[in-house]
């Protein structure tokens, strides 16, 4: 085969490979435009339904139902601690502030701090994770890139708190 | 590389390779799907996140392709049948550089992503990655090995290094794969958060490891026990060419066709650790096989000193440069250098099938003509020796004009060409100019590197 043609095919193969990787990410990212809205919508949607009829939240499941009796008369705020979730970078623990079965705030009690990067990442990740929990009202949150273990520990701690609310 | 035997595949393309290409692409897409399903598009907003994301996908695809590289040369029989070892080796070579570049992109973008997210200087970003990511030092060592493999296989160095050095650096790739595996599982976000993805990923590694162990270790070992192949004698054919006769049991079971090659490994000092491709130079019998090797590298020079009784591991047979590629009654065989081995074996088989068989044997001097006695004695074979360097002759006997003079009816013949890469390419060009259809030209290159 013609050597220039071979070289051209080889370069073409590499270009296609790199472009392919870029396109996959670009496709996902452009999908973000329509996707962010559905994500944002439930963010706004649940609060009215819950505030309007907090008693109906007993249907939301056992943990919420279990918490309901204590606050059945007038849904007051309470705080529930999650357990300490160990990550390779240090412990993660959160505290949920709940009104009935609704999560109104998430406070980080402990975040990884064993290295300067962990500290900085945690500072960047924590607000994102908090707003995600508030928006989906569960522990089913996406990982923050670069803070995989922190995200996972955060979600575990939130789940524990929800289970024990 | 003319160091090792060129062996051939019929130009009539086998279509199985498209199935394999499609399957490999599908698996690649599945690997991207792992990342896709674990990623929320909303987390790709900042440049730092985007860089990290591209870096991660590059890492996933790169790791997948490294395993593909192993599978391509794992000597899987069905893969060999569908694609052909020559083409698989070509894919492996072509993919190699790209995979390493992809892995470099992975490293660069992950570091850049960290730098952008943390608003770090590049050096402190490198430091952050090295000090905080789990199993990162293993990954860095593995990456260094991959780079070593890529550099020693690059065109600039490949020709200067001996086969043995190249081979040994290549073996380090296995170590590199093992070293980089750990950071994929412990730092790869998809595998940390998604147990299904982690299970699939580990399974993929296990399957590849099983294939390599089965077809590159267990099967050759079993076959060695069954056939007990050993060196019977070494015959000097020309000052730099030797024939090696091998003796064993039940060799018919190997189904070796004349024109095919094996990867040979001689169990003796200096030979054990490298396998070399050489074609059979005579049809195999139930008890004997023969290869004819022209000294070109360190290994082939040392073959002359092999002793009787040395055990031999043989992987194969491989290649499609066989009589089954024949489409016409009239056949022209063109051999050059060590290409005479497979061509000599093929001639005998083709003659047994009847028809008109002519052999052109190109050599730079009479001293370099090997196997002459048996070629001259082969009943029905017309042999024409084209001897002399081009500079001495003043012309190329294998160019368009030369071939036309020798065989005016060449367009109606099958032409089997086997020889040094330069000769094979030139002859192919001349044959096309003379109007020989591609389906009648049978040639290929095979070298492991």
Based on the model shown, name its key terms.
heterodimer; A: 165 residues; alpha+beta; Sufe protein. Chain: A; 6 helices; B: 449 residues; Elongation Factor Tu (Ef-tu), domain 3; Rossmann fold; five-stranded parallel β-sheet; 16 helices; 52% helix; elongated; disordered N terminus
Structural account:
The complex is a heterodimer of chains A (165) and B (449). Chain A has 165 residues and is of the alpha+beta class. Chain A has a single domain, classed as Sufe protein. Chain: A (Alpha-Beta Complex), CATH 3.90.1010. Chain A contains 6 helices and 4 strands, in the order ααααββββαα. The longest helix of chain A is centred in the first third of the chain and has 28 residues, at 3-30. Mean pLDDT of chain A is 73; it is low at 33-72. By secondary structure, chain B is α/β, with parallel strands linked by helices. Chain B folds into 3 domains: 39-223, no CATH class; 228-318, Elongation Factor Tu (Ef-tu), domain 3, CATH 2.40.30.10; 323-442, Rossmann fold. Chain B contains 16 helices and 11 strands. In chain B, the strands form 2 sheets. Chain B has a 6-stranded antiparallel beta sheet. A 5-stranded parallel beta sheet of chain B has the order 9-8-7-10-11, sandwiched between helices. The termini of chain B are close together. The model of chain B is unreliable at 1-13 (pLDDT under 50).
Task: Give the topology.
The complex is a heterodimer of chains A (165) and B (449).
Chain A: H1 3-30, H2 32-44, H3 46-52, H4 62-67, E1 77-81, E2 85-87, E3 90-99, E4 102-110, H5 116-136, H6 148-163
Antiparallel strand pairs in A: 1-3, 2-3, 3-4
Helix pairs in contact in A: 5-6
Chain B: H1 16-37, H2 47-72, H3 77-83, H4 85-118, H5 122-132, H6 136-153, H7 155-158, H8 163-187, H9 189-193, H10 195-227, E1 230-238, E2 241-247, E3 261-266, E4 276-282, E5 288-294, H11 298-302, E6 312-318, E7 330-336, H12 340-352, E8 356-363, H13 372-377, E9 382-387, H14 390-393, H15 400-406, E10 414-418, H16 421-433, E11 441-442
Parallel strand pairs in B: 7-8, 7-10, 8-9, 10-11
Antiparallel strand pairs in B: 1-2, 2-5, 3-4, 3-6, 4-5
Helix pairs in contact in B: 1-2, 1-3, 2-4, 3-4, 4-5, 4-6, 6-8
């Amino acid at each position: 085969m013609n050597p220039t043609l071979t070289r051209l095919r080889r370069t073409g193969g590499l270009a296609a490979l790199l472009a392919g990787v870029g396109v996959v990410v670009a496709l996902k990212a452009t999908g973000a435009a329509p996707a962010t809205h559905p994500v944002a919508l439930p963010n706004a949607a649940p609060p009215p339904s819950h505030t309007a009829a907090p008693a109906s939240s007993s249907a939301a499941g056992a943990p919420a139902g279990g918490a309901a009796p204590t606050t059945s008369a007038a849904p007051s705020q309470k705080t529930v601690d999650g357990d300490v979730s160990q990550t390779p970078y240090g412990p993660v623990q959160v505290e949920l502030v709940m009104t009935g079965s609704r999560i109104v705030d998430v406070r980080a009690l402990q975040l990884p701090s064993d290295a300067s990067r962990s500290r900085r990442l945690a500072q960047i990740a924590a607000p994102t994770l908090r707003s995600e929990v508030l928006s989906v009202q569960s522990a089913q949150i996406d990982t923050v890139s670069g803070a995989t273990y922190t995200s996972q520990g955060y979600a575990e701690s939130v789940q524990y708190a929800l289970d024990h609310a | 590389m003319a160091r090792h035997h060129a062996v051939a595949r019929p130009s009539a393309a086998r279509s199985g390779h498209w199935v394999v290409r499609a399957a490999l692409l599908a698996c690649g897409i599945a690997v991207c799907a792992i990342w896709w399903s674990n990623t929320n598009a909303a987390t790709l907003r900042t440049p730092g996140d985007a860089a990290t994301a591209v870096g991660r996908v590059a890492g996933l695809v790169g790791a997948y392709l490294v395993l593909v590289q192993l599978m391509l040369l794992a000597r899987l029989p069905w893969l060999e049948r569908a694609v052909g070892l020559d083409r698989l080796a070509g894919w492996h070579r072509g993919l190699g550089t790209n995979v390493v570049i992809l892995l470099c992109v992975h490293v660069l973008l992950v570091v850049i992503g960290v730098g952008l997210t943390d608003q770090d200087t590049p050096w402190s970003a490198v430091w952050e990655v090295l000090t905080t990511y789990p199993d990162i030092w293993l990954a860095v060592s593995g990456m260094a090995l991959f780079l070593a493999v890529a550099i020693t296989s690059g065109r600039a160095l490949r020709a200067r290094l001996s086969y043995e050095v190249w081979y040994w650096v290549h073996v380090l790739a296995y170590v590199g794969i093992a070293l980089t595996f750990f950071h994929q599982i412990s730092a790869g976000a998809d595998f940390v958060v998604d147990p299904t993805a982690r299970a699939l990923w580990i399974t993929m590694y296990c399957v590849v490891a099983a294939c390599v162990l089965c077809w590159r270790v267990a099967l050759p070992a079993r076959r060695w026990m069954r056939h007990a192949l050993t060196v019977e004698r070494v015959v000097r054919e020309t000052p730099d060419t030797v024939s090696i006769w091998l003796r064993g049991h039940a060799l018919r079971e190997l189904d070796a066709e004349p024109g095919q090659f094996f990867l040979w490994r001689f169990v003796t000092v200096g030979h054990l650790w490298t396998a070399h491709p050489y074609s059979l130079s005579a049809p195999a019998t139930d008890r004997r096989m023969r290869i004819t090797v022209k000294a070109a590298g360190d290994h082939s020079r040392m073959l002359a000193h092999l002793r009787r009784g040395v055990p031999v591991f043989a992987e194969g047979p491989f290649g499609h440069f066989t009589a089954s590629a024949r489409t016409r009654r009239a056949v022209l065989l063109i051999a050059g250098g060590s290409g005479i081995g497979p061509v000599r074996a093929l001639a005998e088989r083709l003659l047994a099938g009847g028809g008109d068989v002519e052999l052109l044997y190109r050599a730079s001097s009479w001293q370099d003509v090997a196997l002459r006695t048996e070629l001259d004695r082969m009943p029905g074979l017309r042999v024409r020796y084209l001897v002399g360097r081009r500079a001495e002759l003043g012309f190329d006997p294998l160019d368009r004009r030369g071939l036309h003079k020798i065989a005016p009816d060449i367009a109606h013949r099958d032409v089997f060409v086997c020889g040094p890469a330069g000769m094979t390419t030139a002859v192919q060009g001349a044959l096309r100019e003379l109007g020989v259809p591609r389906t009648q030209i049978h040639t290929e290159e095979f070298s492991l590197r």
